[in-house]
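Hello, quick one for you while I still have it in my head. No rush at all, and the record is pasted right below.
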Amino acid sequence: MDAGLIALQERIAHQEAAIEELTRQSLVQDERIRALVARVEELERQLRDLSERVGETIEDAPPPHY
């Protein structure tokens, strides 16, 4: 009986460690995903700005000395 109880306690301890590691990895991935989403949004904004500028005519552009 004691050996069975000890084996169960060991299994639970290993499972708890595995769950903690998975939680840590999940949090790291979440942080990275949030950073990547922010970067994509910034790149999309830059692309919109550039596409709007391409539509401008030469007369709309400021003189070269600006």
Observations:
- The mean pLDDT is 89.
- The chain has one helix and no strands.
- The radius of gyration is 28 Å.
